[in-house]
Amino acid sequence: MSTGSFSKPFSAAFDINSQEFSLTGVIRPRSVDEIAVNISMLKGAIDQVRGVLYINVKRLIQMNNTAFHAFVRVFLDACRARPDLRFVIVTSSVVGWTTRMFSHLNKIEPQITIEVYDSKFYPGQSFVEDASFIPILRTQTKMTWRHERTILPRHGMRPGIAMADICCGIGDFAVLVQKEFQPLRIVALDHSRASLAYARDVATGFGITDIEYTYGDASEMLLEDSQFDFVSCRHSLQIFNRPDVLLAELYRICKPGGRVYVTNEKNSHCLGEPRSQSIQWTYNEVAKLFSHFEMDVELGPKSRRYFADAGFEDIVVESIMVSNLDGDPQDFADVIAAWENVYAGEMAVKRGDSPEFIQRFRQGFQDHIFAALHPKGYAGWPIWVASGRKPR
Ligand SMILES: C[S@@+](CC[C@H](N)C(=O)[O-])C[C@H]1O[C@@H](n2cnc3c(N)ncnc32)[C@H](O)[C@@H]1O
Question: What UniProt keywords apply to this chain's record, in alphabetical order (predicted)?
Fold first, then answer.
């Protein structure tokens, strides 16, 4: 239900199956009467649940004191009346005030606990937000852009559109798109503050001031529905343990008739000559390593299925082979060295791999570098590009 007097839509909802009561938007009532219906929905929810009632405030952008005190009164009364019941208030670091404001409740009433959702997105989150990823991303984009700049128009990119780049990393793709295709508006969203800070510097370095870099959680964005003609999400569906949830969000913010564009890998298909066997062994292991942390770096060819299941039409899938023949082979060698650094470093160690395994694992990356730099060698990194149209 929406309340018209608020500047942004406010809604409250209760889902009995997940025992979750959610508050979303901006809620600034002048008196408690204005939110009486929401308060009674909360009371009804309390009556129906056993065990834990989850209070989802991840998208609660603003709440004035009148509303805060009215809802808190209900929580506190319920704690007294129902010692069997626990409240877990789920906040998000994207909406910082909620954690600060709701945390106090735990001191008054231990039955109420606060969880910051972002710290438990998915097991691999910390690796991909690590600042050591920044140099890899920049060189990767440099290599893929040669291919993508010619591919993008086939997937709906054109001048004058509104676009969003979700999980934008260091924002270099947004800058390249801005220069090449001149969209009217670009929003670039990521959950790594280090990457966004870097992104703003990259844009400034190119004299570009109108990209809207935004801190946010891609799986629960504060962006409104149906506002972009083109939504890109590169190399990122594959790092979420629930790619379908992320794709549903991309669908949501895309305009009917607009397109969502993704790129993903199939790591076990990285290849090189000479020393192909050692290279192949290592990249098979890369896929297993990521899957240990619930990330699917084999997702590329599965994107057609994900798009179909999400309800897209006119799905277009193509693959590209980024190789050592694209520009300076040293760029590719640098990317492989950075992969080795993170995958055979922090990730393998965290999985508890033996020194013997890590040594063999590293060797495959070294052999891939050897192939990339060899005057007669070939080293490849296959990427799947997919896009689909949101039905009108
Ligand atoms: C593999 S990188 C890809 C970055 C960029 N699209 C590129 O191709 O260079 C994945 C990005 O997703 C971001 N990310 C991870 N979890 C996120 C989340 N929940 N919301 C938004 N961004 C997230 C990471 O910070 C990282 O920048």
Answer: Ubiquinone
